[in-house]
Amino acid sequence: MKHNILVIGGNGLVGKTIIRILKSRNPHINVFVGGRKGGNIGNDLKIDVTNPGTFRVIQENKIDMIILSVNDKEDHVLRFAIENKIDYLDITKPTPDLVKAYAIAKNRNVQSRIVFSSGWMGGIVNGLVKTLSNNTADIQEVKLFVYYSVKDLAGESSAHFMAENVAKPFIRYENNRQIPIKHFLDSENFNFSFGIGTREAYNFDVPDLYILNQIEKVPNVSVKMTYNSKFITWLLGAFQKVRIFNILSLKERRMIFGSSGKGDQSVFEIVVKSNGEVNKLSLRSTKGQAELTALSAVLHTEELLKDFHENNIYFSHQLHQPSSLLEKLKAYETINIQSVS
User: Fold this and answer.
1) Do 304 and 244 share a domain, yes or no?
2) Percentage of the chain surpassing pLDDT 90?
């Protein structure tokens, strides 16, 4: 069993939450915190993902597994993990960066477990999709609807991604065709659970689009998002329609998406069409996105700790039996799950 786990970005919102949950569930594990401001004393390590020279402390402390919760645009940590045969779990990558990192890993001789966990809320959606159909090959369509509250605690990475990419097209899949679309367009009314009600939801880019189509071979995949404020949702759609995002600076776009509240619920809903049937799963995290993302990372880590999985490249949902993943999520005190067939 692995005992030395390093969380790079461990001083950030999600990183701190990962460490809290991981330690509470696995007190025997030795957890190291990696960050740019860290020292080289005890379990607090100074690591800068833009400077591979700082990675020598990883070997010095005999790290068995790296959890990456900070954006490593150049994939320095991924390359280091592969070269040094260290298990690796990344929860941070937006779709373009995930595609690039996956290509890097596939072209290497991998002798550890390399896990990409960058889907929505730590990569659990794709595992939950499989609980809604007896056979993934029978699934014709998956729709993911996301409810995002501006009152929720939020880290910098998601805000920076939206700021950098809101004016750029991304891909959804229709009969396996790649359809270029943009955020906050093509509204669709959806009746959210947990008392939220019917909201307009707009195009939203998450890695599950790529993973469900390119890895799981689901021919039709779309993701749409709504804000807790109907006005904000409408306003962002209006901004996109008249191309205001195109003329704003990156700093100005970061100001728009960079707000963080003191905490609120996070909700997503999965709708799966399979053999003429429609099944839905609704999940609410009463403690918000950071808690759910961190819990997902911990559940993936615990699967790796069992040492059942051979050295290979994985997407995080591939580590789990879908029914087992569902039960573990249901057992967590701040998560509510409803299924409708």
Assistant:
1) no
2) 75
Range of the domain at 149: 123-288
| Structural domain count, the chain | 2
Residues 6+ positions from 177 with CB-CB distance below 8 Å: none
**What pLDDT is attached to residue 335?**
96
Tokens at residue 79, please?
């390359």
Regarding pTM above 0.85, the answer is: yes
**Tell me, what CATH number does 257's domain have?**
3.30.360.10
- Beta-carbon contacts of residue 303 (< 8 Å; ≥ 6 apart): 309, 319, 320
How far is the C-alpha of 97 from the C-alpha of 103, rounded, in Å?
Answer: 10
Indicate which CATH number applies to the domain containing 107: 3.40.50.720
Selection from 178, 274, 172 nearest residue 221 by Cα: 172
Give helix 13-25 / helix 289-305 axis angle, nearest 10°: 50
Say whether both 88 and 193 belong to one domain. no
Q: Give the pair of three-digit tokens for residue 116.
A: 């990409």
Q: What is the largest CA-CA distance in the chain?
A: 59
